[in-house]
Amino acid sequence: xxxxxxxxxxxxxxxxxxxxxxxxxxxxxxxxxxxxxxxxxxxxxxxxxxxxxxxxxxxxxxxxxxxxxxxxxxxxxxxxxxxxxxxxxxxxxxxxxxxxxxxxxxxxxxxxxxxxxxxxxxxxxxxxxxxxxxxxxxxxxxxxxxxxxxxxxxxxxxxxxxxxxxxxxxxxxxxxxxxxxxxxxxxxxxxxxxxxxxxxxxxxxxxxxxxxxxxxxxxxxxxxxxxxxxxxxxxxxxxxxxxxxxxxxxxxxxxxxxxxxxxxxxxxxxxxxxxxxxxxxxxxxxxxxxxxxxxxxxxxxxxxxxxxxxxxxxxxxxxxxxxxxxxxxxxxxxxxxxxxxxxxxxxxxxxxxxxxxxxxxxxxxxxxxxxxxxxxxxxxxxxxxxxxxxxxxxxxxxxxxxxxxxxxxxxxxxxxxxxxxxxxxxxxxxxxxxxxxxxxxxxxxxxxxxxxxxxxxxxxxxxxxxxxxxxxxxxxxxxxxxxxxxxxxxxxxxxxxxxxxxxxxxxxxxxxxxxxxxxxxxxxxxxxxxxxxxxxxxxxxxxxxxxxxxxxxxxxxxxxxxxxxxxxxxxxxxxxxxxxxxxxxxxxxxxxxxxxxxxxxxxxxxxxxxxxxxxxxxxxxxxxxxxxxxxxxxxxxxx
Amino acid sequence: xxxxxxxxxxxxxxxxxxxxxxxxxxxxxxxxxxxxxxxxxxxxxxxxxxxxxxxxxxxxxxxxxxxxxxxxxxxxxxxxxxxxxxxxxxxxxxxxxxxxxxxxxxxxxxxxxxxxxxxxxxxxxxxxxxxxxxxxxxxxxxxxxxxxxxxxxxxxxxxxxxxxxxxxxxxxxxxxxxxxxxxxxxxxxxxxxxxxxxxxxxxxxxxxxxxxxxxxxxxxxxxxxxxxxxxxxxxxxxxxxxxxxxxxxxxxxxxxxxxxxxxxxxxxxxxxxxxxxxxxxxxxxxxxxxxxxxxxxxxxxxxxxxxxxxxxxxxxxxxxxxxxxxxxxxxxxxxxxxxxxxxxxxxxxxxxxxxxxxxxxxxxxxxxxxxxxxxxxxxxxxxxxxxx
Lengths: 639, 388
Known about the structure:
heterodimer; A: Rossmann fold; Rossmann fold; GMP Synthetase, Chain A, domain 3; 3 domains; 22 helices; B: 4 strands; about 65% helix
């Protein structure tokens, strides 16, 4: 991997740019035997060293060249998190092409839209499931010339698709190309320029079709400089000794930041979870030292902890409950002090650590976490406070795809709960004087939406300010609190502005509530649709000897309604009368991406919910339920 | 080989991967190779725990009275035999009541080898235990090897009865071959261990109990390690497969007759080693000792200690060895039990009764034995602060 390959004419004139790929190359040279990636295979964590990692990236890059991928071509990846994702991502960047990440949960229709909109030339479909989606969508995306798959089960020998390659064949083809043109990839890399687009990150699209944000080398390098090297997020800086667990979709900018870019910039050891369902077990095994999770995961961890304490034997239960209360008290103290310890809290925590918190954290897989962050959606302060109390300070950070996830963050020791923190230094973050919309301006602002000039112009104004679409307000002059998405703000019939997400999050902080959708725009009062958490409510029902069959059956039980009523009342007590929920209905099914009710990032699509459960809403406002074919049959509400 | 899980081999350029799997600091549940997961002492806790137990056991002779020490030393030797039976009955699932026979073979082999060449009975004058211990093991193992074909034809109760027959044949044989055993009611001197010129059965700087205890401890540690390694190897997994369902094991490709034979052979070897050492302390062997009672005692050790565990075998053996001691304490608590053999009920009857009661109680209430109790304690703390 000599970087001294004959430089192309282009590279001779411009100085070599530091990119995520050169970072990997340099690390492979300086620390060839260090562990770069780990994935679990047949029950054993298989390690990939930096040398192997880089070697495979180069071979894959050659394979892309062999497939005729040119500068600026798109390579799509639809896969669960696994080494091949990251390898192919780097390989694509190395040949100056553009990575397009698809969520593994994207249904065929969305696959079709994303592939045709991005005009991908090569598509990576992890397994038979993803390949079938592609084949269904194939007619609409004629630009795809080659499809690569990783898991041959069900595919090998059964599919006669032109351009279909197994991963091994793909690499073999790369190896051949590499023998014939040993310096081809190095030449491409040397020609890389800061304004090369390296990835299209499609926004989840709670309204309208997804838009592909173009991020460049310069964006990512600025993000790395600000977020990683200046220790504004992880402090002290992440290093080769740090372990991370990769389980959130890699096509999302936050996971890309914490997995791919952090790994490239600081050499953290990335451990790929087997699947989203095995995260608790994988957390326990890996005991990551840096952990990024979305609010849903933190809520789930908290719920699991409470359930496990509640279902422990008598002595352990009493003991556990005592310490969980202590954690809440400690958390409240810490929160009041910005997350920093005072002498008194340090002493109390030390005692708790010996007697409870150490074991407790270890069992949850948080034993070694030294920096944790929550982002991508708003989180209830109670949850953060709890984790603070058990010694896992979770920092709420804020950013979005369009600014490469760089905007504000709560810094260790300067945490204000309920806010998303202070603007990162080196960036400009401000509020729109009239609307209160959060605006950012810094070198990580994206290069525009792919093939959508109009949307780009609507997002970045003439002065270079990025309009985030979030409404915020200053807290203590330093921290920013995000009120809500601008378009989600509810204006009641009385003319009162209400941010539903805050109420929703307060509801979701209960271990029994998975989804909450507050409704009330142009209505007299607020109501909510609430979806229960099957695991915890199921457990609760079992302890009470309440028999149930399905999700729907359980959520329609009067006892469960009473349980949720209690949660709602508790939340109502914390709000003033206008912000109180007057009525609620139980969602008869779990919301699902496939049914179009959630985005790939598990955000609720309000319009879809409104369509599917319109009859429930009408009921709550005492309106006549409009007859709607199949309205009662929730499964039919795909729309 | 499944192509699905083959990690992509390094194609070109990079040197051969260094495939020494490393542990990741502080991540006890993160295994990067099967070897780590199957390791003998796979956690720091186990390593320290075993070291601590061995250290305490090694220190005991300096702090315990000689009569107690003698009982403990007997326990150590019985533990070797119990491990052997556990490999056969616990791991491989072949019920054997014939263990006493193999113990007897070991005892006489050792006695004959180390016996006085000019004495009344057979003797070759080889007093080095490093010779006669393996020899005793091998003779027993050969006998086990020859008996094993029976086991491949029989199962469960039938096997138990056949091996019971072995005890009676053996006892008749031992009683009647007078030049070997000294005959009924008489017996002969047991093996004398003279190691590096030191007679372990004579008082010197340390008493004979102390010296023998240390010697037995070393042999036990070696044999226990061997046993654990057999259990966690391919052979051990084959044993478990045969035990759980022999037909299924056969279908999976485990050669039943071969592994049953291996189980019998290894088990008999352990019995032989146990027999060679068992009578060193009181210096006398008599043929009556290798009866059904001894076999039942070994069964009791396995059941009380914990089926299919090495550490359980040791715990069971120690408890059974201490049983007379425990029985002797009972008259202090219950005055109607006499410590004299002429009255009834007396402590010797009580001792016999206790075998039965313990076996029944353990089978009913703690089927995994003493080891099961330990497991429950361990799980309680391992799961802390949760229950699962």
